[in-house]
Amino acid sequence: MVPVPDEMLEAHAILSQYVAVHDEIFKFSWRKLLPIPGIFKPIDYGRHHSQLASMSTRLERVLESLRRISDAPAIFPVYVAALLDTVAHLRDMCQKLYEKSQGDFVSYPMEAYQRDVDTYHELMNSYRSLGAQVNQYV
Fold it and tell me: Considering only CA atoms, which of 112, 60, 114, 111 is closest in space to residue 85?
């Protein structure tokens, strides 16, 4: 077992926050589905974009710091970079969805959204498989 750098603890904290945002966006909820006043709860893409932008900035700092640690396992920065790519992609999707929710219906068509979702799932699979490797060290 390798000593876990503080940067990886920070990455784990960011991962937990990211998963919460992911669940708010993608997890099924009747409150998101039924447009009944008082029950319907729209997804706040603007807030999610802001949260994901903050997470991206923090992950960039973690990644820079990890790259300077010579005795850290090489998988650590690879994992954080993959997580950063995933968070940044969802951040960009939220920006487009926010603009659409504000009335810009033409700049983000359903086909582009579906391509982005497919890419997002690929990125998620990547950081998750790397996470399994990271878990071997911690």
Answer: 60
